[in-house]
Amino acid sequence: MNDHLHKAVDAIQSRFGASLHQYAGEVTLILGREHILEAAQALRDEFQFEMMVDETAVDYWPQQEPRFHVVYQLYSMSHNVLLRLRVPLDGNAPHVETMEKIYPGVNWKEREIWDMFGIHFDGHSDLRRILMPHDWQGHPLRKDYPLGYEEVQFTFNQQAIDETKPYAKE
Amino acid sequence: MGLEQKTGNMGVVTTTLEQVINWSRTYSMWPMLFGLACCAIEMMAAQASNYDMSRFGMELMRPSPRQSDLMIVAGRVTRKMAPVLRKLYDQMPDPKWVIAMGDCASCGGVFNNYAVVQGVDEVVPVDIYVSGCPPRPEGLLHGVMTLHEKIKRERLKDWK
After folding, report:
1. Cβ of A168 and B113 within 8 Å?
2. pLDDT interval class at B8 (50, 70, 90)
3. How far is CA A164 from the centre of its chain?
4. Which of A130, B17, B23, B132 is the least crowded, having the fewest Cβ atoms under 10 Å away?
């Protein structure tokens, strides 16, 4: 960990009670939902983390508390360091404050997380589905979402499947 | 063919209306550009100079459905794309044909999941299925020639 990153990590840990995790040279801070906005604001304004490289989520189903992690990958172009923030969320109606006011570029990323994981971003300006059709039911990247596997036609079951298959009309 | 023999060489060919119409439909086909995935690369290769689809009367892929009569669905169709596909098909003037190119368009291929339509025949009526993942340009050309055979068999009384 270089000096600048050390300073930033220390500051966030002491101010917001974040826990530090390091693996293979990657630095991760796990924060509570209530602190994430202030922490990102401090990192951007005081520690020159100008860029939100990515925002995504992880589903740890069947674990329920926490079930989801929202992952923020920050990058400081001035100092060439990466820092990852994670926010654990419970499985029951997960929601977190939007990061849009600090990093406007996450608008679509948060829409994608909403679409795929069903994590609600409070205060988001335009929280619609982005990948799936607008009338889609459910959130496909959740671990408990059915894969939607359809039975494959072989010689022995071709007739049976053909009868139920919805063929298009002219 | 008695007329030529009686009157000599007048530069006249006699045939049936059915044959003329089927022949002109076959060799002046206007395919619609519908590349969705990797099959589209092979479709482009089939049009390029090595394979040269214009030998079969279809050198120009139209991106506009209203000026085309053959839809080559090249690639997997997602459930979000399916209404678009149907809309474009409905905009094409009759007569129209559909080639499902590749395994994904024919039956879903390896993408057996919630997001991909399991065969484009659930959305539009398909005339020719071309197998392969992706099919080589020869495969597509074979599909096109099979479609030609099919069109030549069409009869006036079956037309809508």
Report:
1. no
2. low
3. 38
4. B17
Distance CA A158, CA A164 (A): 10
Statement: residue B147 has pLDDT above 70 = yes
Task: Say if CB B107 and CB B84 are below 8 A apart.
Answer: no
Cβ within 8 Å, pair B114-A169: no
H or E element at residue B39: helix B39-47
CA angle in degrees (0–180, nearest 5) for A33-A38-A44: 125
* Residue among A133, A150, A170 minimizing CB distance to B112: A150
pLDDT band at A31 (very low <50, low <70, confident <90, very high): very high
CA dist A128 and A135 (Å) reads 11
Spell out which residues of chain A touch residue B79, defining contact as CB-CB under 8 Å: 133
CB A86 within 8 A of CB A29: yes
Q: Which of A66, A121, A61, A113 is nearest to A95 (CA)?
A: A121
pTM (two decimals): 0.79
Tokens 């925002």: give the residue. Answer: A55
Residues forming a β-bridge with A75: A51, A82
Strands ordered across the beta sheet of B31-32: B31-32, B70-74, B97-101, B128-130
Closest Cα partner for B126 from B49, B83, B74, B78?
A: B74
Cβ(B123)–Cβ(B82) below 8 Å: yes
Which distant-in-sequence residues (6+ apart) come within 8 Å of A119 by Cβ? A57, A68, A70, A89, A94, A95, A96, A113
CA dist list (Å): A97 to A37, A70, A90, A121: 7, 11, 14, 5
Report the alpha-carbon distance of residue A119 to residue B11 in Å, rounded.
77
